[in-house]
Amino acid sequence: MSYKKHIFDVGAFNGVNGLALAAKNPDTLVNAFEANKNLIKTIIQLKKKIEFRLGRKLKNYKIHNLAISNKNKISYFYIAKNPTVSSLHKFTKNIEKTWPGYKDSHCQTVNKVKVKTITLKKFCNENKIKVINYLHIDTQGNDLNVLKGLGSLIKIVKQGVMESSISKKNSLYQNNHILSEVKKFLRKNNFSIIKIKPIESSVGNEVDIYYQNTRIDYFNDIKTKYNERYYHRVLDDRLSLKDNIKDSILRFFGS
Question: How many domains does the chain fold into?
Fold first, then answer.
């Protein structure tokens, strides 16, 4: 099947967000990218679980073991004790002061691996992608580089969400981008910020930034809302009776 609509999930981690978007948008191709090859198996397993719940295959979801940034090269990827904070960037040295309790429980590098890093511009050109309807980025300190890696193709992005540190002083990573830099970049490239939302787990140091392309008028072609907690329950095999009944009804009616 040829898809006219495209969603990118950059920094897929366990696959929850990209797979949820694929389930909600069966007419849209979701390309997901995860640098940590050890998580690919987890993503594939979750995909199978969701397909069982839906009663159909998610043929519109593809996972790529690649890191996305602003250059095409081989880079080091730093895998952390808590894999959710693994990054192309090293941790800052004052974590114990600005992120109390995080250094011992989360922010210890346990492995350094070489990964292939490519730009979204290269990926889009190679795959003849003319529009990115929704761009979800969560790359732990590298989100702005993901956007910069689009180069002139930044104009094909309709809308998306990314993370940012609020200040250099309290950044979790070395060379981390900050909110003021993101605002400047988005404004320069004709994007408006729709919402800035604090990230609860970041002890007040990071935010989610929701943005839209000001040169485009229509944004309702993608369903971006989903019950993330439900997909985490599927991942962890913690489904309730209510979940089972609801999914059975949806499968029966082919939804």
Answer: 1
